[in-house]
Each structure stands twice: as C-alpha cells, then as structure tokens.
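INTERNAL AUDIT FORM
Audit reference: QA-55
Scope: verify that the stored structure record matches its stored sequence.
Auditor: D.O.
Record contents follow.
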Amino acid sequence: MNSIQSSLVRFMLRRSNIWNKPLNEVRKTMEGIKSNGMPKGIEILRQTMNGVSYEVFRHPSGKKGKVILYFHGGGFCLGIFPANREFAARICSMTETDVYMPDYRLAPEYPFPAALEDAIAAYRGIVGNGFNGKDVIIMGDSSGCALAVSALLALKQSSIEMPCALNFITPVFDLAGKGDSFTSKAAKDPFKLVDPLGIAKIYVAANNPTSPAISPLYGELDGLPPVLIHAAEHDVFLSDSTRFAEKAENAGVKVDIRVWRKMWHIFHMQAPFVPESKKALDEICLIVKSMV
C-alpha cells in the first residue's frame, strides 16, 4: 500500500472519531455508512431457525453440502449494517457457499447472556436443519469470534458435533482486556481508541469478564476444531490472537495464525480499495472454498 492509500485509509477509519462516541451515536453513524456495492447474483433473505433470526446469503451455484455460519462483530452492541451485510455477501460470492449470519440480540437492550444464548441456538438451528457439524464452517470477526467460541465451549458439554473449522478475522477473545497489545500497539492502531473495549463493556456490565462465557480465552479449549486466525500487526487486540493461539495449541487444537504486517482491526473489510486487504480476504476465502 502506497503512502496516499495509507493516509486515505487511516482518515476513513478515524472519520468522525465514531468509536470513541456514545453507543447511540455509533449506531447512527454505522446505519448511515453505505456499502461499496453488493456482489452480483447473491440472494439475501431472512430466515428463522430454532428461535433465531438469520440474514442468509445464497450463492446461485453454492456448494449445498457445506454452509458458513458467520458471527459479526460490533462489541455485542452493534447489529447488521450495510457494511457487514456487504462483507458477508462478498464472502458468499468468493467461496461459492451460502452464509448464515445470526441477527443475535444486542446489549444493552438484551444484556448478557442473551447474545450467547442466541449463538448457541443458532448453531443448533443450523445443525438441526439438514446439516451435520462437519458441514459447518464458522467464521467471524472481532467480538463475533468470542461469541462463536464461547458458544462452542458451552456446546461441547453436550453430544452435539463440533463444526469442521473455525476461521477468524482479527478476533477479540479477552473482554478483561489483559493483553499487552492494548498498550504496545496503541500508538500505531489507526482507530485511536480511548478505550479498546469501549461499547463491549456495556455487554459485560457487572459480570465477570474472565468467565469463558464472555471471554473464551479463559476457557478449556481442548476439543475445538482446527482454527485459522488472521491477525493484524497494528491492532490493539493482536495479543488476543497470539495468546489464544498458544493456549489452543497447548490444548491439542490445530492452529494456523497469520499476522498481517502494518494492518489494522478487521482490515479485510477494506478489500475494495486496499490491496493487502484484498489479498487477505482472497486468502481466507480460498481456504474456506477448499473445504467445501
């Protein structure tokens, strides 16, 4: 990425300083950000299974034997907006695989553990709707990754089959905020967050942030399927990825972690105009496509 692109991207990420604003202002800003254009041929519909509403992205020649269950981020307080709707549709198009994005309940209107309950129900809904666990590829970004893994840690206590793989984009796994990258990466993180956990603290509220139901980094990770993590060098949440990868590997989980140099939180979403973001999204989608 050249210096002009770099300056443009950082300006766009910091515009209006939205991530340091109150939740209602963040929501209003996110609702107003338009997508860069939906991929052609992708059908978008709503479906309810097991009490959970999903936005479903269908590919016209999708591989019917597999499905992607995608948990969006947003600090457990932000829902499905044009930007992550376009992102899910792009993943659907690139992997030629249908994507189910649960529209889980949000804090503060529905406090913890509502989102976790919906995530557990969402997986059960997929598995109970013609798919086996081995047919499901779980993807997610940011706090959506914590939600996905916390749900799986709860589900593995039952006899339900685990998904075939986990593919995560700049994940958040520690809502206690104990990672050293919170300080070591703060100067180069383009979001310039006053508090990296920000609105996510609304979800945590008075609950124990080190509970595995909130922060899966503190759970027993054995038995999880293979994990691919795309982390970013200039992300204050980088140590969430590295600590999770180390703990999961020590628990016998196969982990592939890739740290992208000079990139930032959820940089894949800038694929339409950042070459490195396009390369990363191409890579993770190619890996997913090879599984279907």
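Auditor finding: record pair retrieved intact. The chain is about 35% helix and 15% strand.
Action required: none
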